[in-house]
């Protein structure tokens, strides 16, 4: 109905509109003579950019940055996500859908421990990490197969430590303030940080009897064992108040602003007032934004550091001096370190760049590497979890696009097909709009068709890859063929955005007219 309302000709209304436009503008100079009934190009750009900013920054809920990742690399990852959301917004909602399906499964499984969707999303985004004092052990993912390395290395140590704490409590019946018990896990003067939680308090969190023990090793992953035995006690209020940088009010304001923009565009279509190409592009963002907000409504927003799960507290006072010295860098040293870390990240090297000459040559290739990594990021989101098979804590992209969805439901693929087609169809609305030149109109039509058909072609190719995955040559050929429509799609998106901006130089007179909201409100006279 929205597409019909925006695209259909309104002959009867146009006649009335033409007379009102004549009253608003000077026939000789073409300038607006009624400031209350007109808007400027800057007004159009501002309203559209504000919605695009919401869709590409505010609505995006990135996963937690990897432990030890340099702030410059984290900033680059945020920029990369923003570019992906700008050029391929369908991929963001696909990512959100996968995480939502996965979070539903986790929340259902851990409901007996009082967990909800916020807990599930926190796990999916790499928000729970296991620590031995100040030593980072690894990420706590859901599922035994996701934790094989961590499980094998620490399971025996943690269970043995847990039994010793319980035996000590049973023998002494004290409140955990003795020095010996502090070494076993209870610390009252723990570090004060909104990202660091004491999750191993033997006084109040550990089960009181052997019957209340968590699941047996054969039937549990490490995450479930730590939850069941009181090592993880974080509540939804803790997540909302101390970890997430967004609340219901801020999200609601963004939704209201997006809704207001859509209402204005619909009202312009109903009144027969011209709609700009930039507004049509923004409508596509806004509609996808509602889906993203719904799917990520319970996901913590922009968590910068994961929650630390301490299974043994005795070493927390041993602060790393190297970390302090790194954080203390200022000026040129910090800038050099940041560029060096970003170059390392893009090149994929673990060797530290310590020469200005070496850094200069690496920096020359950064634009090309950024372009390659953009397509790699889009491909990673499209294929699903790119890192399921990588268990090492330092592996790249372990957390950036994590969804932990092993089996993709058929309804998700169908939803992706429908969303991609509708998003492309929105850009076909200006098929008969006024453009400054015929060439620009032709470019718009070709690009709109490319972004409408491109995602469908990619989905068909990916389904073909899944059906004939046994043949490596056939799989490689299908991937190469799927890359072609993806490249055409990105080029088409860029052309549409550029054309939407250049079209502002020659707008129809009614495009400057504002909506008369009184016509939509029942009144007398």
UniProtKB/TrEMBL annotation:
Ranges that cross the membrane: 44-60, 80-101, 280-298, 359-382, 410-430, 442-470, 476-504
Keyword terms of this UniProt record: Membrane, Transmembrane, Transmembrane helix
Origin: domain of life: Eukaryota
Compositional bias (Polar residues): 190-208
Ranges of Basic and acidic residues composition bias in the record: 171-189
Region Disordered, annotated ranges: 171-217
Protein name: Uncharacterized protein
Organism lineage string: Eukaryota, Fungi, Dikarya, Basidiomycota, Agaricomycotina
């Amino acid at each position: 109905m929205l597409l019909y309302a925006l695209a259909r000709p309104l002959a009867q209304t146009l006649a009335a509109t033409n007379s009102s436009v004549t009253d608003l503008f000077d026939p000789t100079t073409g300038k607006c003579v009624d400031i209350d009934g007109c808007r400027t190009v800057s007004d159009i750009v501002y309203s559209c950019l504000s919605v695009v900013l919401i869709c590409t920054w505010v609505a995006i809920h990135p996963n937690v940055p990897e432990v030890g990742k340099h702030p410059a690399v984290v900033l680059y990852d945020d920029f990369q996500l923003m570019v992906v959301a700008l050029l391929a917004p369908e991929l963001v909602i696909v990512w959100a859908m996968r995480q939502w399906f996965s979070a539903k499964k986790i929340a259902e499984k851990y409901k007996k421990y009082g967990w909800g969707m916020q807990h599930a999303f926190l796990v999916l985004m790499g928000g729970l990490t296991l620590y031995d004092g100040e030593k980072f052990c690894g990420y706590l993912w859901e599922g035994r197969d996701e934790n094989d390395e961590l499980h094998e290395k620490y399971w025996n140590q943690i269970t043995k430590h847990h039994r010793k704490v319980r035996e000590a409590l049973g023998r002494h019946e004290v409140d955990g303030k003795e020095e010996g018990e502090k070494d076993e896990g209870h610390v009252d003067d723990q570090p004060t940080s909104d990202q660091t939680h004491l999750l191993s308090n033997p006084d109040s969190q550990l089960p009181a009897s052997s019957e209340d023990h968590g699941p047996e090793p054969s039937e549990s992953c490490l995450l479930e064992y730590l939850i069941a035995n009181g090592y993880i006690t974080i509540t939804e209020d803790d997540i909302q108040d101390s970890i997430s940088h967004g609340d219901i009010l801020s999200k609601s304001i963004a939704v209201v602003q997006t809704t207001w923009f859509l209402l204005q565009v619909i009202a312009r279509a109903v009144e027969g007032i011209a709609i700009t190409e930039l507004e049509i592009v923004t409508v596509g963002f806004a509609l996808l934004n509602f889906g993203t907000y719904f799917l990520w409504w319970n996901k913590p927003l922009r968590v910068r550091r994961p929650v630390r799960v301490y299974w043994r507290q005795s070493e927390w006072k041993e602060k790393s001096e190297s970390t302090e010295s790194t954080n203390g860098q200022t000026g040129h040293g910090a800038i050099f370190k940041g560029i060096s870390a970003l170059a390392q990240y893009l090149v994929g090297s673990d060797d530290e760049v310590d020469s200005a000459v070496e850094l200069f040559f690496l920096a020359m290739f950064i634009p090309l590497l950024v372009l390659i990594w953009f397509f790699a990021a889009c491909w990673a989101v499209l294929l699903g979890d790119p890192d399921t098979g990588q268990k090492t804590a330092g592996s790249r992209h372990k957390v950036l696009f994590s969804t932990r969805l092993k089996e993709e439901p058929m309804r998700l693929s169908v939803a992706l097909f429908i969303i991609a087609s509708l998003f492309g169809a929105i850009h076909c609305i200006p098929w008969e709009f006024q453009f400054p030149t015929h060439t620009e109109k032709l470019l718009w039509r070709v690009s709109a068709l490319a972004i409408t058909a491109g995602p469908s072609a990619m989905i068909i190719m990916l389904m073909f890859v899944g059906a004939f995955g046994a043949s490596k040559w056939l799989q490689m050929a299908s991937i190469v063929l799927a890359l072609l429509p993806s490249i055409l799609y990105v080029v088409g998106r860029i052309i549409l955005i550029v054309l939407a901006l250049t079209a502002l130089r020659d707008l129809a007179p009614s495009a400057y007219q504002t909506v008369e909201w009184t016509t939509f409100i029942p009144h007398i006279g």
